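Fold it.
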Amino acid sequence: MTHPPVVLGLDFGGTKIAAAVCDLTGNKLASVAVPSRGELGAVASFGHGIETARELLRSAAPDSRLAAVGAATFGIPFEDRVELAPAIKGWGALRFGDELRTAFPGVRVRMATDAKAAARAESRWGALAGYDPAVYLNLGTGLATAIVAGGRVLTGGHGAAGEIGYNLRTPEDVGRQLGQRVMLEDVVSGQALPGRALAAGLSPDGQSAADVFQASRQDPALDGLISEFVNELAFHLTNVAILIDPVRIAVGGGMARSWDRIGPRLTQALRAGVPFPPELVVAHFPEDAPLLGAVALAVDAAGGGAPGNQTLPEINTHESEEQQGQDARSWTHAGAGSAPAVSTGKSLPLV
């Protein structure tokens, strides 16, 4: 009996690693999410992700040929490194593309930074489908945006378009090197918020951003810290909207769970400060968009191109209403804090 080939999507995040096995049209066969184990270092975390993916392939498609792998990661991936990737120590020195090809020999591999992969997914089947120009804002372990314009996700000259985590915060930062200033991601991100609360003596060590948001509901001092956090985010998002004039902004990532605290202030800031305020919404795939974007890369790779082709396919977001209607409402996902939870069954046609 001949078993049809499959593709693999991988999303390497600062706190979780997610994987999905799909058929060549993108229907999901199985998925899993596990903690990244970033505290063990880059090599251990990457290896954990690869072994998780191999186990998923063995359980979901034991007799099928792997046609392609799509991988999303925080930072900007290259064959021999990952630029702008501070979330896990040593991640920048990983030979990311080379290691993926070693792990899956003879298989086509394509890579993208997580926010841009997420924007691809949202612009094809999610909250940004049919909206152009548009912005995807990733509020996860790190902080970044991705820009959709002219039906394509902009990469920039070095793959770093939209990396607002490196924004200057004050006029005094002008002319200072990165090591001489505090960049935006160091104070406005899921990784930064618990550290700020700890440094202010407002929460114990080991808290997550979600813990801080929850505790702020009963703690006026923490509530004030959250207000400072959201206000600084609103300042930079408003400037992004003024620059790009997007029709819609979609917000994804783990902190989107605290939308009741974040959303109203961002909306207010955009309405007050932008000449033509964009619509602000939660992403259709608030936590899975980078993984779906990785699957899309794999599906595209399986359909053409030589093995090892690293070129990122530019995705046309001007789809028909019928295509947009196939919007993945049954795509399920495992939370970052759960044990390896595998969900099976067809759900999302990624075509």
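The radius of gyration is 20 Å.
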